[in-house]
Amino acid sequence: MDTINDTTYYDFRKAIHTNRLVGVWRMMSGFHLAYGGATLALAISALAKTTTLFLLRYFADLVAGDAQPLDGGMTETFVWIALGFVGLAVVEGGFAFLSGRMAAYTAESVTRRLRNFLFDHIQRLSFIYHGKTPTGDLIERVTSDVDALRRFFNEQAIGVGRIILLFVINFIAILQLRVDLGLVSVIAIPPILLVSLWFFKKVTDAYEKYQEQEAALSTTLQENLTGVRVVKAFARQEYEKDKFEKDNWEKYLRGKLLLLMHSLFWPLSDIVLGFQMLGGFVFGAFLAIDGQITAGTYVAYVGMVVWLIWPIRNLGRLIVQTSTGLVSYARLMEIIQQPREPLTEGIGEAQRSIKGGLVFDKVSFEYEDGLPVLKDISFSAQPGQVIALIGSTGSGKTSLVNLLPRFYDYTSGSLLLDGLELKEYSREFMRKNVGIVEQEPFLFSRTIRENITYGVGREVSQQEVERAAEAAAVHDVIQSFPDGYNTLVGEKGVTLSGGQKQRVTIARTLLKNPKILVLDDSTSAVDMETEAEIRAALNRLMENRTTFIIAHRIQSVMNADLILVMDKGEIVQMGRHAELVKQDGIYRKIYDIQTRVDEELEQELAV
Length: 607
Ligand code: DCP
Ligand code: MG
Prior knowledge:
The chain has helices at residues 20-27, 32-64, 74-122, 127-132, 135-177, 179-184, 189-226, 228-233, 237-289, 295-336, 397-401, 427-433, 448-452, 462-471, 475-480, 498-512, 528-542, 554-557, 577-582, 586-606; strands at residues 358-366, 372-381, 386-391, 412-417, 420-421, 434-437, 516-520, 546-550, 562-567, 570-575. It is of the alpha/beta class. The chain has two domains: 12-336, ABC transporter type 1, transmembrane domain (ABC transporter transmembrane region fold, Up-down Bundle), CATH 1.20.1560.10; 358-442 and 497-606, P-loop containing nucleotide triphosphate hydrolases (Rossmann fold). The strands form two sheets. It has a six-stranded mixed β-sheet. The protein has a four-stranded antiparallel β-sheet with strand order 2-1-4-5, with no helix packed on it. Strand 7, helix 17 and strand 8 (546-550) form a beta-alpha-beta unit. The radius of gyration is 36 Å and the shape is elongated. Bound molecules: 2'-deoxycytidine-5'-triphosphate and magnesium ion.
């Protein structure tokens, strides 16, 4: 019976190998027997076919008077021959079917297991990797390349076995008929094989380029779908269309090159093999006319040569198709060999609980070598304090707080959490203890309740969910939906506004009850009134946890215990509101501008 876990887990990292053939062989781990069975069934099927030809020879010789009937006389012999033909046909067809079934089973099982592995693996890769890898490219590999491998396992892998078997069996059979006949029949084969191998190399390169372009195309498509609003808002449809057409044209050219290579090679190979076959027929015919072989032998030979040349003719095609499977193998291995982020390495909740005291000492960080994003950041936060970060866009605020859950590791300096280096704690532990309300909220296409309880890791009562939603000032909105907390979010459900989404993510983070809370610009998408509402709720919730607030409005940061003013990756000013407004600096400037704007607004409203 089929159950979801009926294929055993396989760690595809074990299939990483510089030789792609060895690699795909390892991918089939656990299915080698099924594959062997499929090949064996093919062998039986092929043997049945060749035996048919020997029977044919006997039949022809019998008719021509070159062979003796069985003891029971002519009629009985004919009956036996007829039964033999039927029986052999049944064996041939039956085993071919069996072989196909087993090959399909192997192919489907291996690729299903591969897909599961990839999904899991990809979500365990580092932020650095995801930051620089286009989503479209990943999707392309997990779908199209996995499918190419499936075809490879289903058709080509078994095809190679089939071809080799057919060739060997028929070659031996012809040698049985007559040795010189056998040798004459394979003269052209070594050169054909050599040329096929050379061609295989060429096609592999061309196909690799073709796949790359296909990936580029799906990246463009995926980005455009995600960013369809931006495209429309800037009326850039024409531009995007041209860009897509250009990419598509490139794909067409590369595909055309592939086809051209094929259309040049195959006719050539067919002509050579055609001559080879013709040569064998003529040679055999001379032998027959000369009386050196019987008519029956000649008839059988003709059948065997067809089944000798047919596999060679297909071997070339197969070699080429195999190249597509092997290219896909390599493209998938590029993902599979990426190191996973170690999640549990280090101190976990069994060893320690967190209070939330942080000491930054000359912490520096860069996403890419040589481009520092944070430079010598030094400050400290007592457990329970509120730290505010303010500064121009791109100054490194988000990058700084992303160090806390160990999304990224700082490149130099020291960052102590409760007196211990942050890198000593496991990533899993830090992610449990640091709650971030991200700058760009993301909700899954699931119910609101599922979104709020996402990642809490325990049963949550409805009351608890509602309390979190109330604190995030989103309870009333959710109540107004017909399905309440069971309302679906996203494409198949309601569309939430930016502010509503942000508040749902605030609720989600509050429910997680983290020791360190990070609000990255999290009130920027809500109006003043709601902001005040959330702030009041948050003030209660900020108690007993170290909180980082990233904001653009002075009002949001005024009450913080410590304000860090950031510019180009550095802390340029640090202190409490009262001190900072007195200093001549960026903070003062921001303050002046914002109060002036507020005053002007009030004046206008007063008029
Ligand atoms: N950066 C990067 N790779 C990333 C994220 C950011 O190279 N994956 C760069 C872009 C900026 C710098 O790092 O030059 C700082 O980016 P931040 O996101 O930390 O900047 P802020 O959060 O301060 O900016 P904003 O106020 O716009 O959110
Ligand atoms: Mg930011």
